[in-house]
Amino acid sequence: MEKGLLIVLSGPSGSGKGTVRSVLTEMEDFAFSVSATTRAPRAGETDGVDYHFITHESFEEKIRNGEMLEYTTYNGNYYGTEFSEVLAAVESGRNLILEIEVEGAMNVKRIYPEAVLIMLLPPDFAEQERRLRGRGTESEEIIRGRLERTHAEMKYFPRYDYVVYNREIDACAKEILSIVHAEKCAVKRHADAAKRYFE
Amino acid sequence: MEKGLLIVLSGPSGSGKGTVRSVLTEMEDFAFSVSATTRAPRAGETDGVDYHFITHESFEEKIRNGEMLEYTTYNGNYYGTEFSEVLAAVESGRNLILEIEVEGAMNVKRIYPEAVLIMLLPPDFAEQERRLRGRGTESEEIIRGRLERTHAEMKYFPRYDYVVYNREIDACAKEILSIVHAEKCAVKRHADAAKRYFE
User: Which chain B residue has its CA at the smallest distance from A187's CA?
Assistant: First the structure.
């Protein structure tokens, strides 16, 4: 069984990574990773489907044991991605996309070096600013904060494998699919191919 | 001006690299490299279009100076690819495919490390043998020699960047196009992207 790829998609606010990810999953089959959380299940939510609902203690133990690929806190609850969850998907041969920010991406690469890191960018900084302002939903302070944060995020750029500019959603999604297909052909992922060829 | 890619396509006899290359050039625009030769022009052949017709002395001087990316002899004449020819194409922004054997490919990678090396393979060795015999045009001795040579060629496999199995021509050509598109997005080819983003 050939392993699937773990694709990490990062990008500054306004890069459109949510939309790109959703177009990608329409174009091709990708595995879906169920996040873990410490918050209580809401009505209609199923454990193992919507989230893995676990205790605060259990979540913190997983952090200490390095079992969380990435995590964050919101309203006093933890949310994160368990390494075992991701591993199960790729071992089953399916490709999986994680949409996470730069620090989380670095952690994924450290724990799972075969991961493919893609940085999604707006065409340029001026266009990013136009897009953030164009939403018309955020305060000037929040927009300034997001633009400022982009400088910090771009410091991680050289540690990514690929950069894709989001000029147009479909073209951008197709470029990412090309990366997925190309990475499946990488010789480093076919270490035993020469031996197997003659079998 | 973003540089084009130099794609090196190698593969054992029966891998179908000639056909794949011709399908590729129908699917997308690739630059064409004019070879150099020491043989005399035939009627209707134009210097600089069909070949660069150069003298025996000049060809050997280019070999000594490391100006030939790869070369071979046939019927007492030299045939080869000049580095300057390839460089002119990629500097102009166009992608170029060279279809050359493994030793030549190693030489290309040494001279031009940005080159992308793709090994094209039949699905397996048994299928390669079926294809070679299926042609019905070569002697048993020649077929044996070609199959034997594959073992030597595969020793270079780990030094290639990608492996593509030629199960079906169109799917195979599309995989190679994915590699071309993905490599254009490689962060290593966008060293100044972070700086340029904020300009």
Answer: B162
pTM above 0.95, yes or no: no
Q: What interface predicted TM-score (ipTM) does this complex get?
A: 0.88
How far, in whole angstroms, is CA B21 from its chain's centroid? 9
pLDDT digits (tens, 9 = 90+) for B125-154: 999 999 999 888 788 998 999 999 999 999
Q: Are the Cβ atoms of A162 and B185 closer than 8 angstroms?
A: yes
What are A45-89's pLDDT values in tens digits? 999 988 999 999 999 999 999 899 889 888 899 999 999 999 999
Strands A68-74 and A52-53: unpaired
Closest-CA distance, B143 to chain A, in angstroms, reads: 16
* Cα B72–Cα B78–Cα B109 angle in degrees, nearest 5: 40
Q: Which of A154, A177, A193 sits opposite B157 (nearest CB)?
A: A193
Q: Measured between alpha carbons, how far is residue A12 from residues A69, A104, A120, A123, B114 in Å? A: 20, 13, 8, 12, 29
Both tokens assigned to B43? 């009627």
Round to whole Å and give the CA distance between B132 and B142. Answer: 10
Q: Please give the C-alpha separations between residue A46 and each of A59, A60, A73, in angstroms, as whole numbers.
A: 18, 22, 21
Any bridge partners for residue B162, and if so which?
Answer: A186, B118
Interior angle at CA A38, CA A15 and CA A153, nearest 5: 25
User: Which alpha helices (DSSP H) does B65-119 contain, by range?
Assistant: 83-91, 102-111
Comparing CB atoms, the residue among B124, B160, B178 nearest residue A182 is B178
CA of A7 vs chain B CAs: smallest distance (Å): 14
Mark out chain B residues that contact chain A at CB-CB < 8 A. Answer: 118-119, 121, 124-125, 151, 154-155, 157-158, 160-164, 174-175, 177-179, 181-183, 185-187, 190-191, 193-194, 196-199
Reduced to 3 states (helix: H, G, I; strand: E, B; else coil), residue A80 is strand
> How many helices (H) does chain A have, and how many strands (E)?
8, 8
Count H helices, E strands: chain B? 8, 8
Residues of A within 8 A of B5 (CB-CB) are none
Please say if the pLDDT value at position B1 is more than 80: no
Give the CA dihedral B62, B63, B65, B70, nearest 10 degrees.
Answer: 100
Could you give the CA distance from residue A46 to residue A137 in angstroms, rounded to a whole number? 32
As given in the structure block, the two tokens for residue A102 are 């730069």
Cα(B122)–Cα(A199) distance, rounded to whole angstroms? 13
